[in-house]
Specification:
By secondary structure, the protein is an alpha/beta fold. The chain is built from eight helices and eight strands.
Length: about 210
């Protein structure tokens, strides 16, 4: 399945840390109203049964907005949930095996930090790449930032769209202009904000300027 690069413009990655008195579905819907174009369910501290239940709820919600729902890491859980796809890291199931499990009609995203990893993921059947972390981030504290030049080189080397991730927000997203990315994936820039819908709408406008026509 070819990934529509427009779906990657503003890719929201969930994190229950900032829910407060809201449910995850309420938080995600606020970002969908604000213009998020893809949602990834990424909850490292929930058991698989709870993640499946949450995925089924978000699948219905995202479907109402016409936005793809991606699950993090677990291809078998993505299959069970009927999500639109899965995003895997370098230490997770290899993209070719994910494709064999999920079939041709599901999206597969793969994390990459080098041109070599990016080309290997593309050859194995990835639909899009997540490259980062671009900036220091509290989500993955042991990750060294990827340079702008590396991001640009990856975008130039592959034929599939690239989304930048890691520490990206309103204050630094403009630094990614000219790199060739299709969009950005963000966590706290949306979900840690007091008004998720307004933050999403504002960041989307910025990303549209960065990505260009």
């Amino acid at each position: 399945m070819r990934c529509d690069k427009k779906d990657l413009l503003l890719y929201g990655v969930t994190d229950r840390s900032w829910l407060g008195d809201r449910t995850l579905a309420q938080q995600v819907e606020a970002s969908l109203r604000g213009g998020a174009t893809m949602i990834q369910l990424r909850e490292k501290h929930m058991d698989r049964g709870s993640i499946l239940a949450q995925a089924l709820e978000l699948r219905e919600l995202c479907g109402r907005y016409g936005v793809p729902l991606i699950l993090n890491d677990d291809a078998e859980l993505a299959q069970a949930a009927g999500s639109d796809g899965v995003h895997v890291g370098q230490s997770d199931m290899e993209a070719g095996r994910v494709r064999a499990l999920l079939g041709e009609d599901k999206l597969i995203g793969v994390s990459a930090r080098t041109v070599e990893q990016a080309l290997a993921a593309q050859a194995a059947g990835a639909d899009y790449l997540g490259v980062g972390a671009m900036f220091p981030t509290g989500t993955k504290q042991d990750t060294r930032p990827v340079s702008y030049d590396t991001l640009k080189a990856i975008c130039a080397a592959v034929d599939i769209p690239v989304v930048a991730i890691g520490g990206i927000g309103a204050g630094n997203v403009a630094e990614l202009a000219g790199s060739g990315i299709a969009g950005v994936a963000v966590v706290s820039a949306l979900y840690a904000q007091p008004d998720v819908e307004a933050a999403t709408r504002s960041l989307r406008a910025q990303v549209e300027r960065v990505v260009g026509p």
